[in-house]
């Protein structure tokens, strides 16, 4: 039910937000390049998700975009189903339907349903690995351990930082009494896997691995952080308090993580007040260790690169969900019939409204302009936005294009501009360019097509 429900929500999400996200355009463009040039990829240094998309696209009867939507919808359905299994396995059978509803309404997933992201397979493989480790801890059957390792490797091919989850799961399993030697052995195995990954991909994709290894260079990162914090203190902090600039900057950066976590959990935080249930010891050890290790990974990444997308915090929210779900199930069991009905209704509305975008069609001018340009015979010599280029059948470029100094008659230049700046842009180029078409779908921006005189 969670799997099928997730597919329906993904369909609703893509229908309500038909404009692909930037990352999705990049992955599809890379997949097309792989299919056409046999793997000659230069846009991105960890392209394995695009290799997978290229393989599926090559056998799919649908367009590249629709096929990519179907792929991520299946991965999101799998991740949602695994979350429902992890939640439902800790409570009575009569509350399993609640686990399904809670998983379907999880804001961390629904906020990203209309996006083609390599995070979706990474989340699917990560949840699968967590489930495998829980089963291995419970049964000591090595097939679960092997399955967990395989899932982690596949997750790492989607997002390399899944290696951190592997370390956390190995540590969580080894923390139980009597497993210290196995913990050491597991650490050696993980290290060997990372070294093997380094040598396997050093030639073509070593830059991505080197980027993560550099983040772990504590001395270099500390010196760089202190240099930046000194500039921050000199600019924004009173001269008598500048010695605390590093602390202020560090605390401010780290506070982004719990802020993002609270936003991803949303109304589920109300479960804190619904009961006193706590996780079983096994789940508490595994989920707790993953939470701590992943939090530390985010701190390192944030202080090294001053960047943190909400998607990076989703795994933290996922390992908090079981604890919140147990409290919610306890509150549901002790609540009145009216309260139960309201709770189910709210969960259903959260799932539906969380996946639906009411303002996404304001970006349809990107699609309309791209499709119109495909129908024209005139060459396009300039795009200021790669999304229009993508929909016009060109490549999704990473570096900005340079506007040519001279434009021949009939050659097009295409801008995505704020509607208030359109007249100014037209006036600035009135001597050499004429307006050909304007695409306006009611959003803040419009697409302006101009041609040489």
Automatic annotation (TrEMBL):
Keyword Iron-sulfur listed: no
Transmembrane stretches in the record are 69-86, 92-109, 146-175, 182-201, 247-274, 286-306, 312-329, 341-358
Say which domain of life the source belongs to: Bacteria
Keyword annotations from UniProtKB, A to Z: Membrane, Transmembrane, Transmembrane helix
Record protein name field: Glycosyltransferase RgtA/B/C/D-like domain-containing protein
């Amino acid at each position: 039910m969670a799997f099928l429900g997730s597919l329906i929500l993904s369909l609703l999400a893509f229908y309500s937000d038909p404009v692909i996200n930037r990352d999705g355009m990049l992955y599809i463009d890379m997949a097309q390049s792989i299919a056409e040039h046999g793997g000659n990829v230069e846009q991105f240094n960890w392209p394995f998700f695009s290799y997978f998309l290229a393989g599926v696209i090559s056998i799919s009867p649908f367009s590249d975009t629709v096929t990519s939507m179907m792929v991520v919808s299946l991965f999101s359905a799998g991740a949602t189903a695994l979350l429902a299994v992890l939640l439902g396995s800790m409570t009575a059978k009569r509350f399993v339907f609640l686990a399904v509803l809670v998983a379907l309404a999880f804001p961390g997933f629904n906020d990203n349903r209309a996006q083609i992201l390599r995070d979706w397979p990474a989340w699917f493989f990560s949840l699968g690995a967590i489930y495998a480790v829980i089963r291995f801890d419970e049964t000591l059957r090595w097939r679960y351990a092997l399955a967990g390792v395989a899932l982690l490797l596949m997750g790492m091919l989607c997002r390399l930082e899944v290696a951190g989850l592997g370390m956390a799961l190995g540590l969580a399993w080894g923390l139980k009494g009597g497993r210290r030697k196995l913990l050491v052995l597991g650490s050696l195995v993980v290290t060997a896997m990372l070294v093997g990954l380094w040598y396997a991909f050093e030639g073509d994709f070593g830059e991505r691995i080197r980027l993560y290894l550099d983040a772990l260079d504590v001395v270099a990162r500390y010196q760089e952080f202190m240099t930046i914090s000194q500039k921050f203190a000199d600019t924004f902090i009173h001269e008598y308090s500048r010695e605390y600039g590093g602390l202020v900057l560090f605390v401010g950066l780290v506070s982004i993580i719990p802020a993002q976590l609270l936003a991803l959990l949303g109304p589920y935080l109300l479960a804190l007040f619904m009961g006193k249930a706590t996780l079983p010891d096994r789940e508490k050890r595994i989920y707790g260790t993953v939470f701590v290790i992943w939090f530390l990974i985010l701190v390192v990444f944030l202080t090294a690169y001053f960047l943190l997308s909400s998607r990076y915090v989703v795994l933290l929210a996922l390992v908090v969900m079981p604890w919140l779900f147990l409290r919610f199930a306890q509150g549901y069991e002790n609540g009145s019939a009216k309260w139960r009905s309201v709770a189910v209704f709210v969960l259903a509305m959260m799932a539906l409204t969380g996946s639906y975008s009411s303002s996404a069609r304001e970006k349809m001018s990107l699609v309309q302009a791209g499709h119109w340009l495909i129908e024209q015979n005139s060459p396009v010599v300039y795009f200021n936005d790669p999304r229009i280029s993508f929909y016009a059948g060109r490549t999704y470029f990473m570096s900005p294009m340079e506007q040519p100094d001279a434009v021949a008659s009939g050659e097009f230049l295409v801008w995505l501009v704020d509607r208030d700046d359109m007249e100014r842009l037209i006036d600035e180029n009135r001597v050499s360019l004429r307006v050909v078409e304007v695409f306006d779908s009611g959003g803040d921006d419009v697409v302006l097509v101009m041609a040489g005189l």
